[in-house]
């Protein structure tokens, strides 16, 4: 073991090891990009379910009151939402798992356990909130709730992974609040929050952290 | 200058020991496997450094069984935290002097 290292190298080693042992650093930019693409596809599918095949500027910003939808449309929307959730989460996990494997890191560590716990608490609370109030709320409030609770999850989880996630969380919360102020633009804002922001952040992180 | 060097702790000169102390300072505890994975060292090398730090009273170990396999968990002691902090401060002071 080499002795009498230069102090600046020692400090660098200390800093990097402290970070490595408390943060999951294999979060892949591709996870964000894939989740964003899936969210946009899911949102377009939802528009198709509600408005039929014609998608134009007018019905993009048109608002929907969920309680007024016929039962069959409602079930289709729920299936669409569930599919988006499952596909987005599994693709995000897949790309980060792949990145961790490439770097030779273990995937399930005390750090990833803490990351999942902190991500899940606001996310599960939000999911239950939405399920329990569904059918009683306007589409714009449902959209706002998904954005706000998701943003809170990211803010809460940011301490255990790449720090940029904190900023993404704040932007998701802001987009959700904007949804409540401008309910007419709820659909476009949802696409922005879950689609565009994910793709933009994912691309940025892909280049910054090389993968 | 003499004061500065007296705070540079010989026990932390090796990179492995520096690494062990770094991990245990920011985590309430860590097991052998976790330390080994992060520091990328051999079992024997890690064990001897852990032993030296334990002898010095900077860390404590606790043997337990996890899924019927022996598992040793390490924690930093108050004395270890204090010494490591002075060591880092001394490194930073040294840097300032060199500038």
Strand fraction of chain A:
under 5%
Which bin fits the share of residues in helices of chain B?
A: 55-70%
- Which class of secondary structure composition applies to the elements of chain B? alpha+beta
Succession of helices and strands of chain B: HHEHHEEH
Low-confidence stretches of chain A: none
Characterize the largest beta sheet of chain A: strand count, sense, and whether it forms a barrel.
none
* DSSP, total strands of chain B: 3
Shape of chain A: elongated
Counting H and I runs of at least 4 residues, what is the number of helices of chain A? 8
Strands of the largest sheet of chain B, in order across it? 1-3-2
Domain count of chain A: 1
The best one-word shape of chain B is elongated
Q: What is the succession of H and E elements of chain A?
A: HHHHHHHH
Distance between the termini of chain B: 14 Å
* Count of discrete alpha- or pi-helical segments spanning 4 or more residues of chain B: 5
Oligomer: heterodimer
Question: What does this entry show, briefly?
Answer:
Chain A is mostly helical and 211 residues long.
Structure description:
The complex is a heterodimer of chains A (211) and B (99). Chain A has 8 helices and no strands. Chain A is mostly helical and 211 residues long. Chain A has one domain (28-52, 60-209). The two termini of chain A are 32 Å apart. In chain A, 36% of the residues are buried. Helix content of chain B is 61%, strand content 18%. With 99 residues, chain B is an alpha+beta fold.
């Amino acid at each position: 073991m080499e002795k009498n290292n230069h102090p600046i190298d020692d400090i660098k080693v200390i800093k990097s090891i402290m970070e490595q042992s408390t943060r999951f650093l294999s979060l892949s930019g591709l996870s964000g990009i894939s989740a964003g693409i899936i969210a946009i596809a899911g949102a377009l599918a939802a528009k198709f379910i509600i408005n039929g095949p014609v998608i134009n500027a007018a019905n993009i910003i048109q608002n929907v009151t969920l309680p007024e939808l016929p039962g069959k449309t409602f079930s289709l929307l729920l299936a669409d939402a569930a599919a988006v959730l499952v596909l987005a989460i599994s693709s995000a996990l897949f790309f980060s798992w792949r990145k961790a494997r490439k770097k030779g890191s273990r995937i399930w560590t005390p750090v990833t356990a803490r990351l999942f716990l902190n991500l899940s608490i606001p996310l599960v609370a939000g999911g239950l909130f939405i399920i329990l109030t569904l059918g009683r709320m306007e589409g714009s409030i449902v959209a706002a709730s998904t954005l706000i609770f998701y943003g809170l999850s990211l803010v809460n989880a940011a301490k255990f992974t790449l720090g940029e996630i904190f900023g993404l969380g704040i932007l998701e919360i802001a987009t959700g609040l904007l949804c409540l102020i401008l309910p007419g633009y709820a659909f476009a804002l949802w696409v922005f929050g879950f689609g565009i922001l994910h793709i933009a952040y994912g691309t940025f992180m892909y280049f910054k952290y090389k993968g | 200058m003499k004061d500065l060097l007296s705070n540079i702790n010989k026990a932390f000169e090796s990179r492995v020991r520096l690494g062990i102390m770094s991990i245990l300072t920011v985590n309430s505890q860590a097991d052998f496997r976790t330390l080994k994975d992060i520091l990328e060292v051999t079992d024997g090398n890690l064990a001897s450094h852990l032993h030296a730090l334990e002898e010095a009273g900077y860390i404590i170990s606790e043997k337990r069984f996890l899924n019927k396999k022996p598992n040793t968990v390490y924690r930093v002691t108050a004395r270890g935290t204090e010494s490591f902090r002075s060591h880092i401060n001394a490194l930073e002071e040294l840097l300032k002097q060199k500038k």
